Amino acid sequence: MSTGSLTLIVFAAIAAQVIVFVLIGLRRRKQQFRDLESRIGEQQGSVEQQPVTSNIAPIVSPDAAEKTPLAWQGFKEFIVQRRVMEAAAESICSFYLTPVDGQPLPSFKPGQFLTFKLQIEDPTSGESKSVVRCYSLSDSPQPDYYRVTIKRATPPANQPGAPPGRSSNYFHDHVQEGMQLSVKAPSGHFYLMEAEPLPIVLVGGGIGITPMLSIVNTLLNSGSSREIRLFYGVCNSAEHAMKGHLEKLQQAHANFHLHVCYSRPGEKDEEGVDYQHQGHVDIRLLRLTLQLKRYQFYVCGPRAMMESLIPALEAWDVATDDIYYESFGPATLPKHQKVTQQASKPTAVQKSITVTFSKSGKSIAWNPDAESLLEFAENNNIEVDSGCRAGSCASCQTALESGEVEYSQDPDADVEDGHCLLCISKPKNDLTLTA
Q: 318 and 276, same structural domain?
């Protein structure tokens, strides 16, 4: 056998071995790919079979969570980039806020609020005092700005001598473009349950429209196909906030239905054009308008509306788990407040509890019907600073000299040792507070 023939045989053998190894490798890769497909299919099948749980916050994937900036601690400085009047009477103004440090903003749940720390001059003493107030976010989450929309609070018609709202008038009269404000990260337990695909009914009374705007903008901007019905109760066109914006949304989105109620229409206000219903948003209007099917209800408004509408919805056999609500200002909703979280199981209350306010020099028997220590203090003419009334801003934080409290929900704010938040707590036993 010649040298050339031997060389060819060697090369052929080597080539055959290479081909065999390649074929084996390809077969292994193919089997691995099939195994991977099988595992993915099993995982998808198990996910699809899991029941949908209502009343939970939206689930965020790990990748999305990594891309979302974390909320900051305490107060952070923001610049007022823009202010825009939103009603003909110029009693409602939107403030667009951007962070001084220029960092991307953490997202929030539509319906939540911002907490502001303002330095406002006391009209009596002339001294500047720190005032903490909360205002609902009124737009969908944006990476570079937050928006709040604030109505100037004037004295009630039946109390013309009462002082106007300190913080709302401060915003309208003193907060200008370019000014810096101290702001806490978005918080609050009233927000859209995005995981539940039910049609939703939004009811906003007066400036209670602001969290509803955030919910509507978020859903429609995301392309949601959920049926959305917004009932907006307001005095007349002079105080009708964002009228043009809401009308454009209704024209552009077939799943969005707008129902505007004027309680006292002006001479030039035209029914069917400026508003659809005369009067207030009440259970009669809802029953005449809504179909007989299950809805999620979100309600925000003044005390009179809340105290009539929420019990009426329950009497209409709307499930408690389908009603979400928030009052604004000093309005709480006694005996109907729905607890979204439980810090601990309520303990047995002793027959008689005394709450002592050492600064005020008052010792008062606890009223079990009181919704919180804050409400109890206010009902007994004891002045206590308060803001959010939801355990988020810590402005009602008060030192505990003795005794214990229990919370109706977990506080969002950081509570100092030896202190409690009056707005979401009740006494467990005899209590002494520094208020």
A: yes
52-88 confidence digits (pLDDT tens): 222 223 323 333 333 335 689 889 999 999 999 999 9
Q: Are residues 358 and 289 in the same domain?
A: no
Asked if 322 and 198 count as a contact pair (C-beta separation under 8 A), the reply is yes
The CA distance from 280 to 269, in Å, is: 16
Residues 172 and 264 placed together within one structural domain of the fold = no
pLDDT of residue 125: 79
Give the pair of three-digit tokens for residue 316.
Answer: 């209409």
Q: Could you tell me if 413 and 435 are in contact, meaning their C-beta atoms sit under 8 angstroms apart?
A: no
d(CA 413, CA 163): 29
DSSP structure class, residue 429: S
Residue 234 and residue 301 in one domain: yes
Beta bridge partners of 128: 121
Contacts 24+ apart (CB under 8 A), 139-142: 139/213, 139/214, 139/217, 140/110, 140/214, 140/217, 140/218, 140/221, 140/222, 141/105, 141/107, 141/108, 141/110, 141/218, 142/105
Pairing between strand 397-402 and 431-433?
Answer: antiparallel
**Residue 299's domain spans which residues?**
200-327
Residue type at position 32: Q
> H helices of 100-224, where?
166-174, 209-221
Same domain, 101 and 216: no
Report how many domains make up the chain. Answer: 3
| pTM (two decimals) | 0.74
Same domain, 168 and 218: no
